């Protein structure tokens, strides 16, 4: 079977991956589309740091259990077609197009479909999914669009955690895929003033297309000079951003941190204390938010077509990882095996 795998920090093409075989409660699916996530790009460059820090978060679980000296399977933003059920397993009929939260259930436990030496992800012709977690794609939604249910759910989760009301002003810092997903969720929730900030002109254009009412170029001055947001969404993930928000935000601001910063960062708690700023860190989503995101896509509440800026086969994944480093060229590249 064909797949793209991470080897020595680079995505390489293989045509000799053993065919996955579904066990009880599992289903074999043919991948229709898989989005390349920014977290995959980061893992390719800094996998050792991710594994080490994850081990500190969950020492009893042995971290991620990933051996970086061996090939690593990735790809967690996917849509797929049902091919074959495991023993004593009820699934939708073959040919049904589905998506799922990226988790594989087995007799030995739970395996996230994120980074693994054994569990195949969406950068492959075929993969295994958990029958109880399958969500058929409704309303004839394009499978390429359905593949972006996962990142849209990340944005929805951040918005849910913020508790924002339609009449409050939202400021989104960073208009990469997660910042864009937050903007889409804010628009879907009826938030009346959405301001987006990014250095990239292309990303600011995309933010407008996805629902931002105003955009700001931080090179021309801090967005806090002209905007007084009730809620700030940090989707940049680089040191210094959180502290800058704490310094500039008005009293009572809610700060939702969705950007994943892997480096040590310094903040001055005094600013948050003096202004009673609420800081909420967020990660991923829950199953209900995943389902709600799929429904929003299928019912036309969110149109993800502006996000999709490229499409490659399995043999082009390595080049796509390189191309995604340029925000003026790409936002989301889909892998279509």
TrEMBL record:
Residues 23-138 form the Alcohol dehydrogenase-like N-terminal domain. The keyword Endoplasmic reticulum does not apply. Coiled coil: none annotated. Pfam families: ADH_N, ADH_zinc_N. Keywords: Oxidoreductase. PANTHER family: ZINC-TYPE ALCOHOL DEHYDROGENASE-LIKE PROTEIN C1198.01, ZINC-TYPE ALCOHOL DEHYDROGENASE-LIKE PROTEIN C1198.01-RELATED. This is Alcohol dehydrogenase. It comes from Mycobacterium alsense.
